[in-house]
Amino acid sequence: MHTLKKMLYGNVAFLEGEEYRAFQFRFLCIVLLAGAGVTALLLIGVATAANHIDMRHVGSMTAFTILSLIVWLLLRGQPQRFITLAWVYETVCLLEYVSALYFVSEDEMRVIWFFTNIPGVYILLGQRPGMLITIATIIGLGAGNSSLPKPYSPHAIATLLAALAYFGAFFHVYGARSISYFVRMRESNRQLRHIASHDPLTDLLNAGAYYATCDQLIHLANRHQQHFSVLFVDLDHFKRINDTYGHEAGDIVLKAVTKQLQNSVRQSDAVGRIGGEEFSVFLPDTDLSGATKLAESMRSEIEKLMPQIGTQRIKVTASIGVASCERSEDSMAAIQRRADQAMYDAKQQGRNRVSCFTQTT
Fold it and tell me: pLDDT tens for residues 351-361?
């Protein structure tokens, strides 16, 4: 199955949230091949005398088959070309359908190709192009019918145009509702993923999501042979704050500390709440010296916070452990234990300080 997908679509990957774009890309690839295949079968019928078609339209069918395959080859593995190539293919299709309309007049069902075109336009190009092409098709058939070698009767053309209008309206509404449903589902899934991976109070990564993120960052650091460091931040005497001022006060302190931690780190860093009053910070491309300076800055800024509880402000301090590695085959949990040990040393030394644990593997 993987080999077949690679053959059809090339080496292509879509980001999370691009599911509908991925569907459009794959749909166009299949339509291009199916269109070329069906037209090629009709050409085989002409070559074997099973079908008798005006040679002018045979030339059009041949060009359509070749162009469809060329567009498919240009699209494989290149989703950034999707919009341009989708418009190119739609133009080629309309020219082919017009050719059939004029040069295969003995086939009264040839107008059906205009009907099959409408759903594809709405899927590939969207609501506005779908509506414009539907209207243009209705006007073109209505105005050009009298110029056909064998025009449709007034009753037939009226029925065709009414059916095209209904078909276009149907897919316009259906497409709009489908896309709206997809967008809502995507947003709901995003919210569910966020809820599952973030702490509800601080909105930081929870322990599971944080460790999984850090394992990926460790893998990247090892690949690029970069240092990385981990900070273990533990608030001092946090239980005393809860016991003295209540859990609501504790929540205020946690939120204030969270904001300070987020203001102190880079966008490439990861911050997680891994326990009640325990935080961890992963610092890619950061050696022991840089991590220690950041930890000391964090400690100082936390001490300056003085969050307001009721009518008074309370002092909050933190003990921070630092662990730094250049390369490591250990998991994040193992490295976290080293930072935890360093934090414990800071507690033993009197709290409100930074302590380091280093190990290079």
Answer: 999 999 855 44
